[in-house]
Amino acid sequence: MRRKKILAALLACTMVVSGVLCYDKAMVSASTNKDESTVEKYQELSDEVTDFEQKDRLLGEDSPAKKESKKDIKVDKVITNDGIQALSAENDNPNGAYYLPFNTPVGDTIDVEGESRWYGVIADTKSRITTFMVTADDTANFDLYVYKLNEETSTLELIGYSTKGAGSNEIVDMVVDAGTYYIRMRSVSGVGECAVVSYLSTQYIDKEINDTMQFASELPTSGTVTDAIDSPLDMDVYKFSVSTEGARKKFTIVSPDDCNYAMYIAKADGSIYNIKSDSLYLLEKGDYYLVVASADGTFNNSATYTVTVTNQNCILDAEDLVSYDGYLLQRVGKTGINYYINGKKIDFSYKYEWNISSGKDYLNATMTLATKETSDVYSKYFTDTNGVDHEGIMFIKYNSTFNSSARNLALYIPINDVRYSYNRVASASLAPTSVHQSYDAFANVIVDVDTAKVIDLFSPNWYYESSASHHTNGIGKIYAICEIE
Fold it and tell me: How many CB atoms lie within 10 A of CB 208?
């Protein structure tokens, strides 16, 4: 029944294509600069697709059986695009092939087992040509072949085929040079109605054909990809991996006007899941594929879509504290310094050295911060024993003139009971000549969100506290504040 509906759609030129599922279009852009405390909610892959009709194609499966001989076929009459031959003409051989306009479904009938029906298409330039055939009878086994015309020898050279067996849709999908191409629908067993349609795309084909897992394009860990859907049958497949314990990933798609594109997540085991644009999904360690396809047959092969990927690597058994702009801060345990930014454990130790020697002038300075077993991070707003109020962990813009530590996005983290020291000896020309500091301290550190390492001491820090250093620092903007105990 499903195949008859598809056939009817092809013959009626309405072309509601199998292999894609309905999905509401989302035109949502990735947001930044939220200026709010947040822990983004995530969901696990749960909406599994059980009737994804292009699954075999996605997995790259094909039947090795019934492949036709690659012997070239001689033609005496070359098809032209002057018009379609009368339907009464015999197209059971290539000399009687009908010209097939692109994007135009055509119905036909093979009434003798073993016979063929022939059509031809013409590409004026390098193109992607996708040819799709269906049969009305699920028990009939029709195969699909595509040949290129060798104009010098007037022979047809087999360049592609689809031979999946009875009851299967057949698709031949290739990037080809300019030329004339012949399409053959051949009955292996059975007779009956069939239909064929061929789509042409000449733009954005540099990444094609990436319609299978085997030939998937690489998806960046985070960033934006731009591509186009070439036909209702087209799928763009992108491969990515999760290398930490887990990752929360958000995929935001913006489709061309009047197009409705859907996204799916596929695993190597063949399971496929619906995903929603701008929703955060938890993916455990492993290999995955993002699939973009038309949800309802609408497409525009001259206009691009964009998919923005936001990534948060994570530790699966950790507690979420605060997230912002693709970065997730977690901790293991209620106390101590076991904190993680995007799956990387934060290293709270810090060391800065500055040594100068030029003639009689010299300077040797070392500033360090060392943690102890009793060191403890203050994750949220608190008041210290002196009655002074402090902010807890924050995502901030950090301004600093010291040691290239300024960042558009960094973590500000208060940490108690650490060992701070600063030692400096210098010649008179580079005074102060001697500074020695060493004590247990409450410190505020600045952490790089990508490396998970302390890049500066907000306080204590001799370079900000001493007028002799001429360095300044400050918080340029607060993006998100931790509110979890």
Answer: 20
Q: Which two tokens stand for residue 287?
A: 């290999």
Q: What's the pTM value of the predicted model, to 2 decimals?
A: 0.80
Helix (H) or strand (E) holding 323: strand 319-324
| Residue partners of 238: CB distance under 8 A and separation at least 6 | 210, 216, 217, 218, 219, 225, 289, 290, 291, 292, 307
36 contacts: CB under 8 Å, gap ≥ 6: 480
Give dist(CA 445, CA 453) in Å, integer. 10
Residue type, 247: A
Give the pLDDT confidence of 107-144 residue by residue, as tens digits. 999 999 999 999 999 999 999 999 999 999 999 999 99
Phi, psi for 31 (deg, rounded to 5)? -100, 150
SS3 205: coil
Spatial neighbors of 439 by CB under 8 A, at least 6 apart, are: 419, 420, 421
The count of residues in the chain is: 485
Closest residue by Cα to residue 343 from 250, 252, 449, 414: 449
